[in-house]
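Folding follows sequence. Below is one example:
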Amino acid sequence: GARRGPRGGSRKKLAKTERQQRDATNKALIAKANADTDLLAGTEVVRDIGEKFDVHFEAVAGAQLQASEVEACLSLLSASPALAEAAGWKQEEAERRRSALAAPDTHVLLLRKRPLPDEPPALSDAEAEGWVVIHHPVEPKDLGRLAPLAPPPQPFTQAAGLGGGREAARGEIVGFLQLRFCIQSDRPVLHLQELELAEPVRASGLGEHAMQTAEELARKHCMSGLVLTCLKSNPALSFYCDKCRYSVDETSRSAAKEYVTLSKGVPA
């Protein structure tokens, strides 16, 4: 047969080198994204959430989720209409979801109701009628009978750490977005593993805002796109395709399967 010339061999070697460089670049991007300890920093969409919703985002590494937060997420999943219709909620399914939430490469955006501000002290009857009330200083002999003053309330901060400090302020969990940076089909992508909202905040625009935040995170970490898997019977499928502009990915499984893989390039 014909012998391969040096030119063909050089092209093959060059292609191999380029593939190795691309793989190394992709792995470095994923490692950098997973090492990000302040996932929401610099994201534009998150800044105006306080003006639109009575909710705030909190980014937590899966391995740093507290037990109460994991259970809150599982409770939301167990109430999902799509999950109930597809397979029900069994113990083994709960354990599988619990393991996925706590995986080392998982990131979770918790959607919390903003805690209500402390109410001002009630006015006395005299103050309510417009009288000026002068409070006399406490005599030194009475100090021993007084209860100690409570410490002043601490202000809420977006990034209050990943440890026990999160327990202090942060309001009821009304939704979550579970994310994973990974390589799929030789490209770095942000995989949206779960999006679940409590029934009172569905159809409020909050889900679309969460998806826009995911796009911001993908852009921040130079991902080539976003990927998610959805049940074909899930009513949210039209939300992903029509509202969020996802389309069926070329790697999607055959039409006989009950799931479909959707993807979207990172908007410029």
Q: What stands out?
A: The chain has a mean pLDDT of 79.
